[in-house]
Amino acid sequence: ATEQRLIDQAMFDLDATENKASLGANAILGVSLAVAHAASEASDLPLFRYLGGPNAHLLPVPMMNIL
Predict the structure, then answer these.
(1) Which of 26, 27, 33, 35 is deepest in the core (most CB within 10 A)?
(2) Which pTM was predicted?
């Protein structure tokens, strides 16, 4: 579960369409997030620390505009 890039690339390779219509972008994202969660659990790290590395001190905050 710690081979995030390899698994993400395999998912992209399985769906060669430009807009990810074959597998679906939501399915690819779901698998990627599941792998990240599994890897963080296997590493005994919180998800934000697993994704952000040793210098991650805060949870990531999405930036968006609300109209």
Answers:
(1) 35
(2) 0.73
As to burial, measured by CB atoms within 10 angstroms (0-12 exposed, 13-18 middle, 19+ buried), residue 1 is middle
pLDDT for the residue 53? 85
Element (H, E) at 40: helix 25-42
Residue 39 to residues 4, 21, 26, 32, 60, Cα–Cα distance (Å): 8, 27, 20, 11, 18
Q: How many helices (H) and strands (E) does the chain have?
A: 3, 0
Q: Quick one: tokens of 24?
A: 């679906």
Q: What is the pLDDT of residues 14-28, one digit of tens each?
A: 988 888 888 888 999
